[in-house]
Here is the input.
Amino acid sequence: MAKRITIDPITRIEGHLRIDCEIDNGRVTNAWSSGQMWRGIEVILQGRDPRDAPTYTQRICGVCTTVHALASVRAIENALKLEVPLNAQYIRNLIIAAHAIHDHIVHFYILSALDWVDITSALKADPKKTAQLAESLSSWHRNHVQEFKAVQDKLKAVVDSGQLGIFANGYWGHPAMKLPPEVNLLAATHYLQALEYQRKANMIVSILGSKTPHVATLVPGGVSCAVNLESPSALNTERLFYIKSIIDELGDFVRQVYLVDVCAVGALYADWTQYGAGVTNYLSVPELPMDTKGTVFRLPGGYIKNGDLKTYTPITSYQDDFFREGVKESIKHSWYEGEWTKHPWDETTQPRYTGFQDQGKYSWVKSPSFYDQPAQVGPLANVLCMYAAGHGPTRKYVEQALGLVSKLAGTQVGPEALHSTIGRHAARAIRCAVLTEELNVQWQALMDNIAKGDLAICTPYPFRPGESRGFGFHEAPRGVLSHWIVIDSNRIKNYQAVVPSTWNAGPRNHHDALGPYEASLVGNPVADPERPLEVLRTVHSFDPCLACAIHLHDPRGRVLTQVRAL
Amino acid sequence: MGQVTLLGLGNILLSDEGVGVWAVREVARRFRLPAAVEVVDGGTAGLDLLPYVEDREHLLVVDAVQFQREPGFVGWLEGEEVLAGGGAQASLHHLGLREVLGAARLLDRAPREVLLLGVQPHSLATGVGLSPCLQARLPAVVAEIISRLTAWGYPPLGPAEPGG
Here is the structure.
């Protein structure tokens, strides 16, 4: 007899997500992913000046402010055929890379490590043995016995106080927790360090974006932060060298701690390379443009069909027809008026809630498709596409990661292991390492360009009568983000954002094919339906971001998370 | 680095959900504040807010709160009450205020005093701007903020410069 469980909402994610699973003999046999929010940004923007779009779209979500601003300015630039000065591209690229590094570090340590790491087990670890283990894995300068002892004492105090705070949503002592105490202490120690380093990454975004959250310097046509090496009020030599010092620190942390920890956890949970593949059509877009038109990129992107790297088709520019023509969204299973599949430029957004129907409509998220197929987006899609494109740094870190995993697991693990729940974590860490190198490349490109005497930062905004259509894409931390805009005489006529979590968390599509979350859960083990940790592991591996549940404080501290096993 | 952070939270795309942001913006618009007071529009951010709360003498958060009272009701939450509610589950955010404060505490850099000024919303519909009911209550919310800053020893230096 199949058992049905509902997890609503999934915690430690961005926004509200409800997952329903049917479980038979300890395995998931069917799944539904339901976004429990309605975004409505498209409705808010209609009739406004396009230059307001970056400001408003940043408010869709707390984590993804920067990425929406960027996709938004790119969509406007595409519609109005605006070129972007080189300095602005490099500054944006620095913001993109730093923001993604911040996001990836936060995702692994703060949002998903507790699915794999048992804090209470870390209390039983021997700090000396932990230090020996750490030294065998990495040359990180903060892996010493005093630091591990200090963190263990701190964790004891937290657990004894009963104020678990940030650790409150873990499944401690669950039978699926398998790490030895020393590895748990190692990861917990790096959890605390990750809090420091994510802040350093964000500092780069603050300096170049003039503030966080909600960067203020991304404008259609370029950036609004003046560059002048001598001026105290512009981006000057002192600021740029301060940024450089942060870049170096981040590189060490990502390559010596984050990447190593992910490999260690992955090797000890090697069975999780067998679960969670789901949809293996992978879509990503090229990123870090190096020219004013968006035709030359540091990081490749494209499309892979059915997990076969030989099918890789690159997406090559901001004018690429292959991307523009391929994207459609269906609302057959979403709470909107009608039952169509349309191109984003032609869509409407009319909410109509009709309750949760397994076979009918059951989500606020629309269902995107690429040439009629569901596609997975995110760091895994990005890394596989870059790997297929022969991108040097990506190949280097993939080989490094798989080499370490193979050594620790005592068996040869190849790139095929990446198509899995744990593979998504590995790909995110690999991408993060690639981005730390890119920070250096972009920083040097900016310095060299300024040294040439080029101080241009923005192309003036033109007024174009009549209708213009544009799209802007960005390889965001969670995958492909695209904004689609229709402008009519400097007013927004239509606006659609097709966000990464829509690709991944979308419901069944117009052919009733399962979305990536849903497909990845089928076959997932579940030891205890009352504590479905394994379901969270697979869902969290995508780094869900479904912003916009309502955030109200409830002074009575009501617990809203319900796991109902029926 | 200020000793006091005045932090407005909320989503300004969901009408009264954004009351905290509108309130702190109004304070910044009307008053010249001492250099030690930093006004932050936190939106719905999570860990991005860590640098604004760490090592502060006082943290004053303004946000929409479900008091189960009439729209426009204004109330205070203190210390543990702030940590008890508004966490991962009740938040727009996987990392709500509770997690930010929890992270600061883990790093031994928690603010010495945390107060949350809550306002009961009337409408959470999609749209920018407050409902008339809450718009009318905004001066009272601002007055609460100013009297709290004054009690902490950081009264406004005067009205804001026009156009400033």
